[in-house]
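Example 9 (inverse folding). The structure is encoded as follows.
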């Protein structure tokens, strides 16, 4: 049997433990960096508050699902995230948008219509502050002939909001926060009612 020269055999378990700790710490750091780049965490960094995957009344005796709403210095921004990869052929007037990726081609319904419905539902609850919205495409999508209205790339949205955070008057943000709390309360009430009915 071969002996390790210069290393006491009782030191080997401690050395193996130290190496394992270094590996685990490295994995944790990599995980945290990736998590920091996730959609949710990046949106949280550029907004004062965030609501995700909630239901509110649609104003027509029904309910509507909202993917994201951000409280920002602009007011409330409603977001629909599209995870598509490839070249997107789209316009405001097209009923269906097409994506070409490698040799694959698929279509999906124009997402602007749903976004406008969600914006209207939020605006109905928050009449005193600005409500805007975007269909947000992750950066794996490319638009062949320009982007339709209310469409933005994720990195551009983050860059725009990052430059604006902290540039707003305290009184204005307090007024926005009161409205935002109303949206949060409506979302919780609608969610509870939805769960009770199912």
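The amino acid assigned to each position is listed next.
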């Amino acid at each position: 049997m071969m002996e390790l020269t210069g290393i006491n055999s009782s030191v080997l378990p401690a050395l193996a433990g130290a190496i394992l700790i270094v590996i685990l710490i490295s994995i944790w750091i990599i995980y945290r960096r990736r998590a920091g780049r996730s959609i949710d965490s990046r949106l949280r960094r550029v907004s004062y508050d965030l609501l995700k995957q909630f239901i509110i009344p649609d104003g027509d005796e029904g309910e509507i699902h909202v993917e994201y709403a951000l409280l920002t210095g602009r007011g409330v921004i409603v977001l629909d995230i599209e995870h598509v990869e490839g070249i997107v052929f789209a316009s405001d007037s097209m009923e269906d948008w097409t994506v070409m990726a490698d040799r694959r081609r698929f279509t999906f319904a124009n997402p602007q219509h749903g976004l406008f419905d969600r914006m209207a539902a939020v605006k109905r609850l928050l009449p005193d502050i600005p409500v805007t919205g975007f269909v947000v495409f992750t950066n794996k999508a490319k638009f062949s002939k320009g982007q339709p209205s209310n469409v933005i790339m994720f990195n551009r949205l983050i860059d725009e909001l990052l430059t604006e955070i902290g540039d707003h008057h305290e009184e204005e943000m307090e007024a926005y926060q009161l409205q935002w709390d109303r949206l949060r309360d409506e979302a919780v009430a609608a969610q509870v009612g939805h769960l009770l009915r199912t």
